[in-house]
Amino acid sequence: MLESDTARFIETVGELPPEALAAAFDRMLELRRSGGREASRALKPSASENSALDHAVRSTLLPRVAELEGFREHLHSDAISAATIAARAILKRAQISGEQYRLLVEPFTSIGVHAPSAPDAG
Predict the structure, then answer these.
(1) Domain that holds residue 9
(2) Is 117 contained in some domain?
(3) Which run of H or of E encompasses 60?
(4) pLDDT tens-digit map of 93-122
(5) CB 105 within 8 A of CB 86
(6) Counted domains in the chain
(7) pTM here?
(8) How high is the pLDDT of residue 122?
């Protein structure tokens, strides 16, 4: 079972319109070139945590496959990828720097999704 901040984030992401999910994925790709890839690699969830995250994100977005694919080809898998990375950052935020955390959640915070503060951000 996921902790409440991560579960709430995944639930919110599951309610976003396709346009917002596409924007989050596109922003994630932009940020990968400026440290996002390294920040993502710094996350070290356990196998059970990773499995729970993957299951939660996929279960949330599965009912929307047709809607997301109708908006943009591959958006369903793109949204899963972006949401899983950001959710992993929320779950393991105590293990990464504030800057790494910001890079990983910004694709969603930039479109108005709440993410808890990083531990060193206050």
Answers:
(1) 4-110
(2) no
(3) helix 47-61
(4) 999 999 999 999 999 999 999 999 987 754
(5) yes
(6) 1
(7) 0.94
(8) 47
